[in-house]
Every structure is written in C-alpha cells, then in structure tokens.
Amino acid sequence: MAKRRRSLVLAAGPIVGALIGALTNIATTRWNWWLIAGLAALVGVAVAIVVATDASPAAPAARGRNLLPRDLTDFTGRAKDLDRIVSARSPIYSVDGMGGIGKTSLAVHAAHRLADSYPGAQVFLDLRGFSEGEPPLPLPEALEILLLAVGVPADQIPAATAARVNLWRAELGARKAVVVLDNAAGADQVRPLLPGASSSLVIVTSRRRLFDLDGVETVSLDVLSPAEASELFRIVLGRPAPDAASIVARLGHLPLAIRLAAAWLRHHPELSGDDLMRRLDTPLASVREVFLLAYRALDEPARKALALVAFAPTADVTADSAAALLRMSPPETQAVLDALCDRNLLSEPVAGRFTIHDLVRESVMRHGEFAGLRADAIGDLMRHYRDAGAGTPVMADLSWWHAEIDNIVMCARHAIQAEEHPFTWELPLTAAQYLRVRDRIALLSDLLQAAEAATDDPAVSAEILRELGICAWLTGRYADATILTTRALETFTAVGDPMGCAHAVSNLGRIDKHTGDLASARVHLQDALGRYDELGDTTDWAAIQLLLCALDRKGGDLGAARARADAALKVAVETGQRDLEADARTQAGTLDRLEGRYTEARRNFERALALDEEMGDRLQTAYVHRHFARLETDLSAFTEARNRLGLALGIYLEIESSQGVADTHQQLSELAERAGDKAAARRHRAKALEMSRVLGRQKPEPGTLSSAAAG
C-alpha cells in the first residue's frame, strides 16, 4: 500500500508541473490551446495537489470540504420549514425552538440539500450555547475553527479577534459556502460569525428566537404534526404501529421523545404500545420522563457507559477513548456504544465518533447515578489522551491528531480549571508538537502559561519555559524566546537536569541562527554538542552535527560540513533512526550537489525521500523535493525541477504551511529565471514576497526542529 501511494504521488508530479506551466503560459498570454483544453482534466487528477499560482495563489487543496455531520436517513416532516431554508431567499436563517424539537436535524438536513448549490464549503460548528457543564464556545476559538474549516492555513489566522472576524467574512464573501452554527446561546454570540456578503448561507440554531439579528429569516419550530409524529414513530420502531397516534400524542409530538420511546419499544418486541403508554407517567411526557424509561431499560453496564460518556469533558468519544472511561476493552466498548446508538441515546454523526444530545446529557447529570465515578473516569480519560498522544508521532499519524486535538485541548482546559494535576501540564506538553506543526501557537501559549502558573515543580516549570521559548521563537519574538529559553536553562541547571540544559542550549543556538548571529549560534551549538556527547545522547548529538553542517556549508567550509554529515549519517544508520538518517542524507545530498557529485546527490535524495515517505513525514518530504529540484535545476532539467516543486507545493498546501508555500514560490522564481522566463520569475517572486508580508515573520526551515527542540 505504501509503495502504491508513493507511486501515485510521484505520478502526480508531472501533472502539477504541467499545471504550473499551463497557468504560467496563460498568464503571460502565450496561449497554448492544448494546455488550456486539458487543464480541467489535469485539475481533476491533481485536486489533492493544487498548485498556487497567480490566479489562486494560496487556495488550499482542502477547501470545498464537507464537514457536515451525517444526515439522518429517517428525517421526517418539516416540509414547509425545509422548503423555506432550501429556497435560500435569505443569507441567514435562524431555527429556534425548545430542546429536543429537532433544530439541529433540520439544519443539517437542509445543509446537505444545499451542498451542491454552495460548493465552496459545508461547515458545522457547535457553539455550545446550552451544553450542560460547558461554557459557550469563545469567539476567538470559534473563529479559528471556522477559518481552519474553510482552508485558511493556521499561520495566516491573525491573533486579534477583530482581524479574525474580518478574515472570516472575507472568506465567506469569496466563496459560496453553507455554514451551520448550532446551539447558539444568543444573538451576541452569533453576530460576529455572520457573513458580510450574501454569497454564502448561514443556518443558526438556538433555543432562543434570534429576531434581533439583521437580515435574518426566522424559522420557529413547533412540535411535529400528529401525522408527522406518527410517521417518525413508525420509522424508528421499524414495524407497524396502529396505536402510534395515541402514543405520540402522549409524548407531546416532540421528536427526541418520540425517537427515544420508539427505540425503547423496538428493543422490547414482546411489549405493545399499551405497555409503553402505561409506563409514561403523564399525558404529555417530557424528554426526561422518556429518557428515564429508556435509561431504566438498560442493563447496568450500558447505564454506566451512558453516564460516563455524559460526564466526559469532550466533544465526542471513540471506542478507544470510551474504553478508557469505562475500563473495558475497545471491542466491548464498541458494542456498548452501538447499542446506545441503536436506542437513540447516542448518535454517530461521523463514523466511529459518538456524541450525546444535550438534553440526554442533562438528564444523566440530574439523575445522578454513577456520579461518584465521575472524577476517576475523567482522570482515566485524561490519562488515555496523555498516553495516546505521547505514543502517536505527530508527523506519522496526522489524521489521529486532527481528529483528537480538540478533545485533548478540552481535557487540558478541564484539568486546568479543576486543578487536576499532573494533567494540568502533562496534556499541554503532550499536545505541544502538534499545535506547533499546525501553527496554533496562541492556543498552545495560553495552555502552557496556565500550566506554568499551576505547577510549583521547578522541573516541570523548566520544561514549560522551554516550550514557551519555542513558541516565542516560532512567532518571531526572538528576544522573548531568548529570555524564556535562558530561564529554562537556569531552572534546568538549578534542578540538576543535564539533558534539559542541553536541549535549552541547543535551542539558544537555533534562535541565534535565525536572528543571523551565526557566531553565537556556533558557540551554543558546539556547547550543546559537547553536552550531548557527555550524556551519551547520540541522536541529539547527530542532530546538532547537522545544524553545524549547515553553518559550515553556508560559511563555505564544505570539508567540515561533509565530516559532520557523515558522522550524523553513521549514527543514524547504527541506531536505526530513520528520521535522522533522512535528515543526514538530505544534507549529504546537498553537499554532493555543491561539489558536482550529481549521481551521489540523486542517490542520497532518493533515499531520504523514501525514508520520509515511509514515516509519513509530509513536511520533510516537501523539503527533500525542494532540494531535489535544485539538483535538477543545476542539471538544466527544468521540467523535472518544476515537477518536484509542484509536489512540494502540493504538500505544503495540504498541511497548510504558508511559509512552505512562500519558500517554494521563491524557488519557482529562481527556476523560472534560470529557464529564461523572466515574467514568471517576477510573478513567483512577488507572490513569495506577498506571502512573507502576510506572515510577518520568519519560521525555521523544515527539518531543523529536531528532537532536541521538539522534545
């Protein structure tokens, strides 16, 4: 499978290169009609590797994604309300009504119906306005989630809330998107998230009527009609129900109550509708009463599972995370979760991820059974995320981190608020590398600062200070980075942690390197090299050798650089460190290229590329493609060089690395200059400069943030 995937990626290179050529020709009015005619087909094949050019310079490949929850296959009724929304006469619809009335189901169903008319993106966001035990989603966080959802790279999201609002509205104005803002606390929470132009459509749900929103068309939901309610009951029950009308009348025609009651009766085929009626206490049974009926019908393990899922401070659970809550095996847990879904007590909007309705959560909380297990269960869940995160390499399994990071952050915030040590600092430190890779530096800094305030352990404080120093370095605050890293070094020294000292010294060298103080960088890196040597840490010793190799190469001492690259490569091969070997071969290949040893350079780059692809290290893979492109450029193989840069650009777009996109545009400009296409060179150079101004900062080159810095 890995070999096939690599073949597909390499096969896409010429396609992306051709796209660059085609778009360049169009932009320079050299109209190659065969290219234009084939452009649509090329785009279709290379959709995952969209090349940012003059026409759409930074449109990520992920834009246009559908992030809506799964649609209900048994959606019933609401025809007039659905038609109003699907007609899209207004850019904003507000769906209001009591809890359990079916607001979210209607909004999601309508959004799925509208997806073809709004192809730019289909986005869903729970604003947590009425979630038991959780505060409403803060505006800055809501904006960050929405901007990421429509494909804005994390490092292009501004820190200021007002700037995020403006960017979000600009993104909505630039595309036709349908956005569902679910569970809003009120108009004030929603207003900053609404579009400024009418090209996109927003559907808001709330228990409150949001009549004070400008330009909104309100859809106020009542209970289902008797006919609709009876039909829903029959569909969920899965068999004829001659007494459906009287049952749903007893349930007040409330959709959630109907689903719960029908699911209960479906699991008791020996009982009749009359039996169900006798178990309902009042003529108009509330969701709480029906919940209690369904809840009492569960065996103890299922009741316990539902309660502990309700207690979890996360957006959803999986079989693995719920297994930690329940202290059961994942297969056993999966069976319990499926059974609860079958009874409509949980839902599975995305395959493998289970959520609980707010009203069901509230009912569980009020019922109080198993409340004594809450603290221990949440502790088990936080321990699961700490251990799973520590055991899941970020670059090797980005999909796991993408899916779980919000839950890890929610657990970290719970730990901080509840003072659940040591998770207060362990969870932020666990998430640090992923949040750095995704450029969610502001969020990481907030968590780390709260963690540092919570700990009185100087050893932990030193590690947090080191991470805060990296955050400052990555955001271009080099003076702050130096101060924080120096404090970390002093604290590591005070607690007698020589490895922490070595990491801090090496980071000071990196900071110096990126401020241009190469002499100081060399001093710090040589110091770190000696420390790692004394500690017997050959991996980090070799990583520092590669940083010094780069300094030697820039200083023109290729002999010294070669010795360092060879030493690092020897360690990598002997210890089986594939990531280190890939870095070492990239440096060795660069030296081979500079010395005119092109066959050896190609061999080293090919080996580095194979290793990075095996590990799933997308960032380093793109970095090697760029070095490979320089080799092809030196050999005047301009088409091959452009193909390599196309592959690199596609990866940077996929992982939303704006700095990588900017660097690749700069390299494309150099390639175009060598190929004699001065107009294309100017355009790519302008794009690189434009993106650098947007970024407003420097970032380390891929591959330089070694384990010594990342921890």
TrEMBL record:
Domain of life of the source: Bacteria
Membrane in keyword set: yes
Transmembrane segments: 33-53
Organism of derivation: Paractinoplanes atraurantiacus
Record SUPFAM superfamilies: P-loop containing nucleoside triphosphate hydrolases, TPR-like
Protein name (Swiss-Prot/TrEMBL): Uncharacterized protein
Keyword Membrane (UniProt): yes
PROSITE patterns in alphabetical order: TPR
TPR repeats, residue ranges: 582-615
Keyword annotations: Membrane, TPR repeat, Transmembrane, Transmembrane helix
